[in-house]
Amino acid sequence: MGNLSQDTKVFIFLIFVSVLHMAYYYPQMPESLASHFDIAGKAENWTGKDVFFLTYAGVVALMALLFLGSRFIMEKLPEALINLPNKTYWLAPERKAETYSYLSTQLTWFGCASVLFIIGCMHLAIRSNLTGENTIAPGIWLLTTAYLIFTLFWIVRFVRRFMKKEPERM
After folding, report:
1. Which residues, in sequence order, are CB contacts of 21 under 8 Å at separation 6+?
2. Is 134 left (phi over 0), alpha (psi -120 to 50) or beta?
3. How confident is the model at residue 169 (pLDDT cuts 50, 70, 90)?
4. 56 burial class (0-12, 13-18, 19+ CB within 10 angstroms)?
5. Amino acid 71: pLDDT
6. Which of 8, 54, 121, 157 could form a disulfide with 4 if both were Cys (CB 3.0 to 4.6 A apart)?
7. DSSP string, 95-144
8. Tens of pLDDT along 88-119?
9. Are 79 and 91 a contacting pair, CB within 8 Å?
């Protein structure tokens, strides 16, 4: 793991955390779990423990495939599939490698935030089932607000970077 970038290490660590989270809580859970919550955060649908944790694992695996996979296919994508402000400038041969590196890094950081969001949501559902409260409010609103704020700042930073015609030096 020595030659992996910091963002990739953090992402892999978060995937590992989610696996530990599942392994730790799986044996503690009842056979039937509240798995869907209404707008007020109250449980309204239940599922089996195996389905709940398979869904959790599937979502995390999909995120790993999507965000880590993007690092490997980024440079192989046709330029027509890449949508950037000032695309011609940023994908010019002299800037292309730096642009792809930046895109990969930023997508991986977004993936880190997304995996944290999923872990948080699943933890709220797990806690609800363990305590018998059958609600995930107000935690889900705080978590969702934090994720949306991160997403907004991420998008603004991303767009501002590519609206410029001069790359920022880090």
Report:
1. 119, 122, 123
2. left
3. low
4. buried
5. 84
6. 8
7. HHHHHHHHHHHHHHHHHHHHHHHHHHHHHHHHHHHHHT--B-TTHHHHHH
8. 999 999 999 999 999 999 999 999 999 999 99
9. yes
CB 91 within 8 A of CB 100: no
Q: Lowest-confidence range among 2-6, 137-141, 166-170?
A: 166-170
Contact 143, 136 (CB under 8 A): no
Four-CA torsion 97, 98, 99, 102, nearest 10 degrees: 120
- In the numeric block, which tokens belong to residue 91? 């994908």
Residue 4 has pLDDT above 80, yes or no: yes
77 contact partners, CB below 8 Å, separation of at least 6: none
Query: pLDDT tens digits, residue range 36-45?
Result: 999 999 999 9
Q: What is the pLDDT of residue 53?
A: 98
Q: Tell me if 143 sits within 8 A of 120, measured CB to CB.
A: yes
Distance CA(64)–CA(62), nearest Å, equals 5
Cα–Cα–Cα angle for 23, 19, 152, rounded to 5 degrees: 135
